[in-house]
Amino acid sequence: MKVVSSMRNHAESVQELLQTQTIKVHAQIYSELFKVVVRVSKNFPEIEAARPRCSSGIEALCLLNDGIVKAKSLLQQWSESSVLYLALTGDAILSRCKKTRNLLERSLCQLQSMVPVLLAAKISGIIADLRSAAFFLDPSEEEAGRVLRELIHSSAVDYTEEAALAALRTVSSCLHISSQKALLTEKRSIRKLLDKFGERDSSKRKILIFFLNLLKKYGKAIAETQTDNAASERGNHLPIPNPYLLTEDVELRAVYRSNESHINTLSRPVPPQEFICSLSSSLMYDPVVIASGQTFERMWIQKWFDEGHCTCPKTHVELSNLSFTSNTTMKDLIIKWSAMHSVSVPDPKKMQEGFLRSWDSINSVASLTNSMVGLNIPLDYSNVSMGSSLGSDYSNTMISNEVRSTHEIDWKFLSKFTTLPWDTQCNAVGDILKKLIHNEQYLAGIPLRKFVRLIHGFLKDAYDRHDMEAQMTGCQLLYEVVRKHSNSVSYLKEDEYGQLALLLDTEVSKQALFILEELSNHQQCGQKIAASGALVVIFNILDSQIQELLEPALKILRNLSSNGDVRSFITPSELMPKLVPLFEDDNLASHCIVILRNMSDNEEARVAVAYTDGCIAAMAKVLESDNREDQEYAVSVLLKLCSQRVEFCKLAMEEGVIPGLVCISVNGNRRAAAMASEMLRILKEDTAGENSEADAASIGSTPQRNDANPPKASRFLGKFFAKSSAKKK
């Protein structure tokens, strides 16, 4: 088949020798696109070998082949083009790179569900790299493009030689066309493009002729020196591999090592190897440890086990069991590293959920006609006379304008956000929210620190203006950001937490609670939430009994109470009376019992639990529920109480905990049953001790108690332990 043959050709091209060229403009974009092509090309043989032969698989293979061909074509055109022309079409090139990246991502997403789990995990890593690839224009090159567009526009209106010379000097400075050698190279590049375009692209020819005449007329004036300065040239240009002679990543890195300064500028930070899942080759979002002691991404190791494997994917050792536990230490380290380097770690589950979403159509990148998008400038050269007339037939010609890709946010627009009218700001925030909900990579390439500050500023203004609708939209946007970009939480400062605490007392309290609930999942946020004053309002919400607010408020307290550094901010004597009424709701009771379990490590909290009216009784009710996890937590709290003080044992027995404990000791899960048995042992010893003391005190003074009628608790415990002894025998 044609597609298979093409894919094999791609695989073969990876083995060829590496050759480099000098990319003189937009080197960052070229470098990112090239790395994408290398990564995808390197995996062609394995993808083809998986042979997804269904109709959708063939279509996906065709898309992948089309994407790599388009990317190589764009890179080849790039390496052969004029510096001035590349600067002029910078926005178009940026758009084409993003569309090509999206085409590759789309095809890989479709193929991922059709291949074995190990290859699927590897494809997931490639997709993550594609989504994290940041394409942006260098400010100086962007400025050069703007000056060139203004120069072309003014050439038909109020063109002067002084203005042309000043503009060309600015452009040459931005693009480093400052020596005779650079000028000569640029002229040759323009002539090659003229030959390539031929007569079929008259509009492009006229632009190139315009540039060529500028260089001929003013070249000597703008040259800084007549002597070639090769060292300076090398300092300004990055050697980039030929896109048609791709090789392995090792060779690619060898090329980049030839210019260390550009490595630091253009390459994304490389995470420590232990942060990478060996299945997906990506940063781990939810690392777990398996029986072999190796750490993997939760989703991918689960898929590995689901396929019937009983060995460790890394060591190939047969596992004693297929269980795994969260590696919280590793996760914290990854979060800190990601925050330090402004790297987003996507949730692979959410990535998979979005695989079937609709995509914008991908247009051809083979023609440079479409590379003039986004300029929106009139081309009227009828009055230009620079040694060669451009002709009057192009009077009032307009270069087509194309809508920006909807997959990535326009940071240039957001940088001017605060200067916009309030209605425009509100509409923009609403639009960003809608797009982020449907595409979690919408913020790719945007500095999250600045974006979080922007949302905070918007929420503050909305609060000051008493604009409830704007507060609602702003809260929803902030929630989506912190939920989908976990490293964004590190950029929230005290002001943001204080603003959220204020919003808890408004009509958007529910949305503010959702944000705080998400933040409370991150250990580093706990103290900031507590210090913001939010706990006071959350306590008031528990008193208010507003049903829709109770669960998120309890979830926040549940998360915060698990943090030892934050528990000191929570006053047990104030909290316990507020929790007791909530035990009537089984769903809320599950959160309440976990809060009690978390708090009961503290003596002050144990005292508050024991002496708060109805608290032990509420736990006794939980012991008799059908939720085994809740039962375990309730037994845990009671065991912590009764193992510390004798009077707590009396209170527990008075509230009728024994029947529930007996049932759990027999039917509960292993941990709960063990704790329930220990609890019953403690209660029996306490009861026996009381009886002995009572008997001793009654000798010689009062009639002895009739042993035929012992207290009810003693009778129950006696029967239970008698049955236990009989079973052992």
From TrEMBL:
EC number(s) on file: 2.3.2.27
Q: Which GO terms describe its molecular function?
A: ubiquitin protein ligase activity
Tell me one GO biological process term: protein ubiquitination
The protein's UniProt keywords, in alphabetical order, are: Transferase, Ubl conjugation pathway
Gene3D superfamilies the record matches: Leucine-rich Repeat Variant, Zinc/RING finger domain, C3HC4 (zinc finger)
**Chain spans, region Disordered:** 687-712
The record's listing under PROSITE patterns reads: U_BOX
Could you say which enzyme class this protein belongs to? Answer: transferase
Domain U-box positions:
270-344
Looking up InterPro entries in the UniProt record yields: ARM-like (IPR011989), ARM-type_fold (IPR016024), ARM_PUB (IPR058678), RING-Ubox_PUB (IPR045210), Ubox_domain (IPR003613), Znf_RING/FYVE/PHD (IPR013083)
Would the keyword Transferase be found if you checked this record's keyword annotation?
A: yes
- What domain of life? Eukaryota
Q: Does the keyword ATP-binding apply?
A: no
The biological pathway it contributes to is: Protein modification; protein ubiquitination
Which Pfam families does the entry link to?
Answer: ARM_PUB, U-box
Write out the catalysed reaction: S-ubiquitinyl-[E2 ubiquitin-conjugating enzyme]-L-cysteine + [acceptor protein]-L-lysine = [E2 ubiquitin-conjugating enzyme]-L-cysteine + N(6)-ubiquitinyl-[acceptor protein]-L-lysine
> Can you name this protein?
RING-type E3 ubiquitin transferase
Query: What organism does the record attribute this protein to?
Result: Salvia splendens (Scarlet sage)
Could you read off the lineage of the organism from its UniProt record? Eukaryota, Viridiplantae, Streptophyta, Embryophyta, Tracheophyta
